[in-house]
Design goal:
This protein is an alpha+beta fold and 206 residues long. Helices cover 38% and strands 21% of the residues. It has eight helices and seven strands; from the N terminus they run ααβαβααβββαβαβα. The strands form two sheets. A five-stranded mixed β-sheet has the order 2-3-4-5-6, with helices on both faces. The protein has a two-stranded antiparallel ribbon with strand order 1-7. The longest helix has 15 residues.
Amino acid sequence: MEREALAGVRNRWRFLLEFYQARTLILCAPALAVYEASVVLFLLKKGEFRVRFDTQFKKVIRSCKDAYRPGQRGTWLTDEMEQAYNQLHAMGYCHSVEVYLGDALVGGLYGLSLGRMFFGESMFSLADDASKVATVALVEKVKGFEFKYIDCQVLNPHTEALGAVEWPRSQYLKVLAEELKFPNRQGSWTEPEPRVPQAPAQAPGT
């Protein structure tokens, strides 16, 4: 079953490989500027958002699939791939970050954990800053596993503010080879709940 699930996402990996041959790859390192995202930390201070891991994976991936993205027609996430990711989650390779506002799931992301790296796949947000909260929570989680890098795929104002940088392909592949030598962090990430960094007492700039 594991081989079948991996085969289900093989076409997606082939597409990414071809896509990135002509450009640099983008990495987000937990040791970088995530703590400078003081606005996000302030939001976490009040406890308005609650974060969980691996409790609603199917709902997160479906929300990512159905999310409206300006300038895009449809989604790259097919039904076959959704099923494959769900199987990989059941095997303990794929994980979700879920952000709640009250009892409502308002944001989240999912991705693949291999070796000592996390490969972000997609995210969604139904409330302001929910995706940023999910990213900060993920960084805190994988830092506890001694992960050094998160492959966030895309450089945009959101990922750049949280420490994303561009690397040449050769550097990326060198680091990837080293980090994949470590054992997989396989299994549920539900417990314990992630540690949230201390936020400033007041909003930045006030």
